[in-house]
Specification:
Blueprint lengths: L3 E3 L9 H5 L5 E4 L2 E4 L9 H5 L5 E3 L12 E6 L13 H11 L3 E2 L2 H18 L6 E2 L4 H10 L13 H17 L6 E7 L3 H7 L11 E4 H8 L18 H5 L5 H4 L6 E5 L1 H12 L8 E5 L15 H12 L36 H17 L13 H9 L9 H21 L8 H19 L5 H4 L5
Parallel strand pairs: 5-6, 5-8, 7-11, 8-9, 10-11
Antiparallel strand pairs: 1-4, 2-3
Length: 464
C-alpha cells in the first residue's frame, strides 16, 4: 500500500521529483511522472519538492469518526508543536473531545513505554549492538529494500503509535462494553508513511489503527475549540518530557539514557549513515536513531509549522515537564511490546531472477552506462545514467531515451542520407539498392525523431 500518489493532471513533466527521491522510485516519460510502487518507501520527499503539487499524500478525512460508535483520537506528539504559545497539552486534548472524539490517548504516553522497553532490551542484548530505531516506517522500508545486512540491527519493538492503539482499544472496550470493530482508533499523523504503516504494517500482522488523518486537516479545526482557562480543562495528559520529546530528532535517544548513540534526520543523511553502518565504518555505537523527515516527526509533510520552529516549541513545552509519567507495570493492557513477525529483505532492486542472470544483466548495465555521457542530467526521465541503463536491461526503457544518444543516432543517419543523395553518388540517379537503403534510413530517422516524446501541452501553440 502506497500513500504517496501522483495527481497526473497537475504534473508538468519536470524532473524535480526524480532528483530528490532517495530510492529512485520516480520516472518521467511522455511528459508525466510515474511512481514505481515497489521502490517507493513513502517518505514524502517528492511532495515537498514538487513545484506543481502533483505529488499528494493519501489519508483519511476526519469524517471517518462517524463510521464508529465510539472513537479514540491518537494525537502524535508533533501535533502540540504546531500551536503558538502552548503551555498545557490538555488544551489540545480537550479540544479534540470538543471536535467530536469520544476519548483521547496520547502517542507520547506510549512512547515512554517504548523507551522503557527499549532500555530493557538493549541492556539484555548489549552484545548485539548497535541497534537501529524501528519507529519510522520509511526507515524500515528503506533498510528492507536497500540494506538487507542491517535488518538484524532493527530494534524489534513496536512503534509508539501501535502501542498507543492497542492500549486505547483495550481501555475503550472495557469502558464501553462495545465490540472491537465498533471502536474507531484514529491516528492524527504528521506524515504519509504512517498511513502506509496502518494499512500494511511491518513487524506485526495487523495494526490496531483504523484510520489515519492529517495534522494539517485537524490543526485549523481545533483552534476554535482551544480554551486556555485551565479551570475548564479535564486533566487528560499523561506524558512527560521523554514522550513529547519523541517528536523531535534526538528525542528517542533522549529516552534511552545511553551515551554512545547517533541521531540523524533527513533522508539524505540517513542514507549516508546506513551506508557507513553497512561498511562497518561506525564503531562503538549502542543505538542509532533515524528519522526520515528533517527535524524528526515535526518535519513531516502533513504538518503546518516549520520543522525547526516546531522543535523549539517542543523544547519550550517540555521544559518544566516531569521526565516520564508512564511505566510498563502500570499498563497491563499491553501484553507484548515486541514484533510478532520478522522483517524480511525485499529484493526489488535485483536485476535478474537468478544469480547467473543478474551477473549478465549487471554486465549489460555497465556496458550501457559507459555509452551514456555520465551527466546524470535527468533528461531521459531517470535520475542517473546507471538507472536508465538498469531500466533498459529490465525492458522498461530504450537507449534513445538518452537525448545525447538520440542526437548522435540522428546525426549519423543524416550523414548516411546525405552521402547517398549527394556525395558518394555524384549526383546520378540512385540504384534500386541505394533507393531501398535511403528509404530505410529515412524510416529510421523518422522513428528516432518520434521518440523525442514532446509533452502534449507543448505540441500546439498556446492561444492568446
Amino acid at each position: 500500500m502506497r500513500s504517496v500518489r501522483l495527481r497526473e493532471s497537475a504534473c508538468q513533466g519536470c524532473i524535480n521529483c526524480i532528483k530528490h527521491c532517495p530510492t529512485q522510485a520516480i520516472r518521467v516519460h511522455s511528459g508525466k511522472a510515474h511512481i514505481i510502487d515497489k521502490f517507493c518507501i513513502d517518505c514524502g520527499r517528492c511532495i515537498r519538492y514538487c513545484p506543481h503539487h502533483a505529488k499528494v499524500p493519501a489519508y483519511d478525512p476526519l469524517s471517518v469518526i462517524n463510521n464508529f460508535k465510539y472513537t479514540v483520537a491518537l494525537p502524535a506528539p508533533s501535533l502540540y508543536a504546531q500551536y503558538n504559545n502552548l503551555t498545557n497539552v490538555d488544551i489540545v486534548l480537550n479540544a479534540l473531545l470538543r471536535l467530536g472524539f469520544d476519548d483521547v490517548y496520547e502517542v507520547s504516553a506510549a512512547a515512554e513505554l517504548v523507551s522503557e522497553a527499549s532500555r530493557e532490551y538493549i541492556k539484555e542484548h548489549m552484545d548485539e549492538a548497535p541497534f537501529i530505531s524501528s519507529a519510522c516506517p520509511s526507515v524500515i522500508r528503506l533498510i528492507r529494500v536497500k540494506f538487507p545486512t542491517l535488518i538484524s540491527r532493527l530494534l524489534p519493538i513496536k512503534a509508539p503509535v501501535e502501542v498507543a492503539a492497542e492500549i486505547a482499544r483495550a481501555r475503550a472496550m472495557k469502558k464501553t462494553g462495545l465490540k472491537p470493530e465498533e471502536i474507531g482508533i484514529i491516528f492524527i499523523s504528521p506524515c504519509p508513511s504512517k498511513v502506509s504503516y496502518a494499512k500494511a504494517p511491518l513487524g506485526i500482522e495487523k495494526s490496531n489503527i483504523d484510520n489515519v488523518v492529517a495534522i494539517k486537516d485537524v490543526y485549523p479545526l481545533l483552534l476554535p475549540h482551544m480554551k486556555h482557562d485551565e479551570s475548564q480543562l479535564k486533566p487528560l495528559s499523561h506524558s512527560g518530557r521523554i514522550g513529547i520529546g519523541w517528536s523531535n530528532a534526538g528525542g528517542e535517544v533522549g529516552g534511552l539514557l545511553v551515551d554512545n548513540y547517533l541521531a540523524a534526520d533527513g533522508i539524505v543523511n540517513i542514507l549516508r549513515v546506513l551506508e557507513e553502518l553497512e561498511d562497518e565504518k561506525l564503531h562503538g555505537l549502542t543505538f542509532v536513531e533515524l528519522n526520515a523527515c528533517d527535524g524528526g516527526c515535526v518535519g513531516g509533510t502533513l504538518t503546518v509549522e516549520n520543522a525547526y520552529i516546531a522543535m523549539t516549541k517542543t523544547k519550550r513545552l517540555t521544559k518544566y515537564q516531569p521526565v516520564s509519567k508512564n511505566h510498563l507495570e502500570d499498563n497491563p493492557e499491553i501484553r507484548n511490546m515486541y514484533w510478532a513477525d520478522d522483517v524480511e529483505y525485499e529484493p526489488v532492486f535485483r536485476l535478474g531472477n537468478t544469480f547467473k542472470e543478474s551477473l549478465k544483466m549487471m554486465s549489460d548495465v555497465e556496458r550501457l552506462t559507459a555509452r551514456f555521457p555520465g551527466l546524470d542530467c535527468g533528461s531521459c526521465g531517470a535520475p542517473t545514467c546507471q538507472t536508465l541503463a538498469e531500466d533498459i536491461v529490465r525492458g522498461e526503457a530504450t537507449p534513445n531515451d538518452c537525448i545525447y544518444v538520440l542526437r548522435s543516432n540522428i546525426a549519423d543517419l543524416s550523414q548516411k542520407i546525405e552521402a547517398l543523395t549527394q556525395g558518394e553518388n555524384g549526383g546520378k540517379m540512385l540504384s534500386e539498392e541505394e533507393d531501398k537503403l535511403l528509404h530505410k534510413y529515412i524510416k529510421e530517422l523518422t522513428t528516432e525523431l518520434a521518440s523525442f516524446g514532446v509533452p502534449g501541452n507543448l505540441r500546439q501553440p498556446k492561444q492568446q
